[in-house]
Amino acid sequence: MSKIQVNNIELDYEDYGNGKVLLLLHGLGSTKKDWDAQVPFFSKKYRVIALDLRGHGASTRPDNAYGVGLMTEDIKAFLDQLEIKKATFVGFSMGGAVAFQMASSYPAYVENLVIVNSGPDFNDMGSIGDDLLKNRTEFMETKGLELLAEEISFNMFPEAHQVDLRNAFEIRCKNNDYNAYYQSFVTLMEWGLGDKLKNIKTRTLVVASDMDYTPIGFKEEYVKRMYDARLSVIKNSRHGVVIDQPDAFNEVLKRFLDDE
């Protein structure tokens, strides 16, 4: 592991392989460990960088400074320090929001955009978003982060053969700082691109699971509003597709990158 100082915090990251850069951005409450099944596969051909976003993993956990905008500025500064001018951004869930914002704010840095079980407007998801914000904040305030970690992990990996995946994800989630998780979650649910989505010209792949929290139709709708986007659906998968269906996900991403 290595650390880079950006915007008064440290970002912890791992850097493997050589070639064009794949930058992997994890989900809320998790870490770069989300990508354990992608790093060895893609680092044979690409330079693969996985990092912990602010407030997560081994990166700095500020008291108050959170939000997709700040995370995006962190990523830009991170790439500048490594003298990386372009990368394919692969963002899962919250990481997808950061990838979207990067493609909107700093398109010159984004060679390809890969959005995994995420969306461009967490603040405009209708009843799904309203219920998520209400239920999760109430759960945290009444039952605490450890029990929330158990529930999230079970919902993502409920099957008997997924017990090891479930336990590993639960441990990652339980290791969060309460304030860092809460602030990251609330600010994420306030974020959205709105009409700026149509201005993203970057070649985009959206990956959806057939059993994700948001339906396939949700992804189909915003893909239609994008300039150059395609949708790929992975079956027998829930929210954590990069973990529960890594071979299928890796093949979908490989085909997209090979088509350049």
UniProtKB/TrEMBL annotation:
It comes from Ulvibacter antarcticus. Residues 21-124 form the AB hydrolase-1 domain. This is 3-oxoadipate enol-lactonase. It holds the Pfam family Abhydrolase_1. PANTHER family: HYDROLASE, PUTATIVE (AFU_ORTHOLOGUE AFUA_2G14860)-RELATED, MONOACYLGLYCEROL LIPASE. One of its GO terms (cellular component) is membrane. InterPro entries: AB_hydrolase_1, AB_hydrolase_fold, AB_hydrolase_sf.
